[in-house]
Amino acid sequence: MTRVRATLRATPTMLRVGLAETVAYRVEFVIWMLTTTLPLIMLGLWTSVASEPGKQFAQFGEREFVAYYIGALIVRNLTGSWVVWQINEEIRRGMLSFRLLRPIHPFVTYAATHISSVPMRGLVALPFAVILLFSTAGDLIITDPALIGVLAASLLGAWLLTFFMLVMIGSLGLFVDKSTAVFDVYMGIFAVLSGYLIPLALLPDWAQSIARVAPFRYMLAFPVELAIGFYHARGDALRDLGVQWLWVTIVIAAALVVWRAGIRRYEAFGS
Questions:
Q1: 69 CB contacts (<8 Å, ≥6 apart)?
Q2: CA distance 130 to 241
Q3: pLDDT of residue 27
């Protein structure tokens, strides 16, 4: 309880520090944001194909592609994380030892740093949200208050799922020289099974089956599909929200297991 109270007292300060770092290193932040613009490239590709008369891909026409990829850009901006590089750098430079001496769990300080950047990301995502709202695809955006509530919960779930997945991969740096190679493999799988590269409805049936049970869909495609009205039944949305939060629980537990095992190994070498 003492540690919990200390964490709660320190959280506002950590958030302020994280926001100050985001503002101070705004060039790096902007560069990172620019790396999430792949949906705009795919948007140009698919809308040019779908604009041809009679072209329809599953439930996707030109309007649906516009809504989907702008939604994917917004969700990716709000939920993305660079914690895997942060952990690897701290392990490599020995800075992790200083973090371990603090009375607050490193996961909390990492999370505070990344949560504090969300307002800045929101400023970047806002123009795209306005474009989506007033574009020809604007009428696809959900208006059901219940589904909007599910969407808010799904965005939080997507953030947690992405953050702790990358924490787990970053923690592998306690066992190998660099875990960024594992991250590269992860990003390849994520790009396909999350719907970041191509809407999941356009994948072969066997790939869609894998995507439905894997965690990657719930990091991106699920909140995007919710936002642009692909869910018409509240029960279906709640079911998938439950699956998402089940994955959140599993990934947080796995991240803690990998971290604790890695820290024991790290301390055994006198670090």
A1: 39, 40, 42, 43, 46
A2: 26
A3: 47
What Rg value do the Cα atoms of the chain yield, rounded?
A: 20
Position 7 confidence tier, pLDDT thresholds 50, 70, 90: low
Q: pLDDT category, 41, cuts 50, 70, 90?
A: confident
pTM to 2 decimals?
0.83
Residue 125 lies in domain: 2-268
**pLDDT per residue over 79-102, tens digit each?**
888 888 888 888 888 888 888 887
Number of structural domains in the chain: 1
H helix count then E strand count, the chain: 13, 0
The answer to whether the beta carbons of residues 169 and 182 sit under 8 Å apart is: yes
Q: Which residues, 6 or more positions from 48, have their beta carbon under 8 angstroms from its beta carbon?
A: none
Asked if 203 and 221 count as a contact pair (C-beta separation under 8 A), the reply is no
At residue 131, what are phi and psi to the nearest 5 degrees? -60, -45
For residue 241, the tally of other CB atoms under 10 A from its CB is 21
φ/ψ bin of 102: left (φ > 0), alpha (ψ from -120 to 50), beta (otherwise):
beta
The tokens describing 21, both together, are 């770092």
Q: Which two tokens stand for residue 249?
A: 């629980």
